[in-house]
Write a structure and sequence with these properties.
single chain; 329 residues; alpha/beta; ornithine cyclodeaminase, domain 1; Rossmann fold; eight-stranded mixed beta sheet
């Protein structure tokens, strides 16, 4: 009888296994298969914990061409920074779809930041102007770091403007990012941060609009990352009305993405949504068509992204013999 086993992987073991470039390649394939209808992805299941200012999400999915199936259990607790804990923590179970065996049980905290950054990088590849040089980061936590690293793979970025709720967050960001030949600028006001930028990345937990349409230059691309629960919003609703909006998945975005508030207030409707990212990556719908339009990627985070990254991590761990093996059955 074959000796079946499961690999246990910690964040420390995972970090050196996958580069942002490889992560982007995996996520782009996941989006392609999503656009081709070759994935299964039930809606996120939310457990809201208002008493603790947090929530949990269960995210199962399968990607048929990758022969991959997984589920992620992840939290979002904005107050965790005060406690010395990550805002987002997660656990992933990657299973063999042919027999149900858990192939790997792995930390998903870093993997979540990695796949979100990769998704932003892929979206910008299709939606931002190719000559984009100035990036604005509204919020500068772990998500912002992977977003920037992903953008650096495809754009000639020279300047990064950063707005943080507290100066200490900006200092921590610079300490952890360490990218040479980039001009980092700390901005005291969001307007100052986003004006004249080519790409804007928002990664805050805000429940009120932070960015106004009149501050944006023509041709800017926005990766709207922060809104991931009902009631969250980072962009003035008028921006959505005047832009080419691409969601990662309509059902999730309508419930908890950047568009959720504007939809409920009937400022926009489904007709105002240009496409989902799968339609763009698979070529079913054109991406940016001119250098004057404002484009937005509304990212809520898809379970298929997690699967793509989990499989990438698992295969790399196997090849390098990393992780603790346990006998599951």
């Amino acid at each position: 009888m074959k000796n079946y086993s499961t690999i246990i992987l910690t964040e420390k073991e995972i970090r050196p296994l996958v580069s942002i470039k490889k992560a982007m390649g995996a996520v782009e394939k996941a989006f392609l298969y999503f656009g081709q209808g070759k994935t299964q992805m039930p809606p996120k299941l939310y457990i809201n914990l208002k008493k603790y200012n947090g929530d949990f999400r269960a995210m199962p999915a399968a990607i048929d061409p990758m022969k991959a199936c997984a589920i992620k259990w992840v939290n979002v607790h904005p107050d965790n920074r005060k406690k010395g804990l990550p805002t987002v923590m997660g656990l992933m179970i990657l299973s063999d779809p042919t027999n149900g065996l858990p192939l790997a049980i792995m930390d998903a905290t870093y993997a979540t930041a990695l796949r979100t950054g990769a998704a932003g990088g892929v979206a910008a590849k299709y939606l931002a102007r190719g000559d984009s040089k100035v990036v604005s980061l509204v919020g500068c936590g772990a998500q912002a770091r992977t977003q920037l690293k992903a953008l650096l793979e495809n754009f000639p970025i020279k300047e990064v403007k950063i707005w943080a709720h507290k100066k200490a967050y900006y200092s921590a960001f610079l300490k952890n990012i360490k990218i040479p030949k980039l001009n980092f600028i700390s901005c005291s006001k969001i307007e100052e941060c986003v004006k004249n930028s080519d790409i804007i990345v928002t990664t805050t937990p805000s429940r009120k609009p932070l960015i106004k349409l009149k501050w944006l230059k023509k041709g800017v691309h926005i990766n709207a990352i922060g809104a991931d629960a009902k009631g969250k919003q980072e962009l003035e609703s008028l921006i959505l009305k005047k832009s080419k909006v691409v969601v990662d998945a309509w059902e999730q975005a309508a419930h908890s993405g950047e568009i959720n508030v504007a939809l409920r207030k009937k400022i926009i409707s489904k007709k105002d949504i240009y496409a989902d990212i799968g339609q763009i990556v698979s070529g079913k719908i054109k991406s940016r068509t001119n250098n004057q339009e404002i484009t937005i990627f509304d990212s809520t985070g898809l379970a298929i992204q997690d699967i793509a990254i989990a499989q990438l991590i698992y295969k790399s761990a196997l090849s390098k013999r990393i992780g603790k093996k346990i006998k599951f059955i």
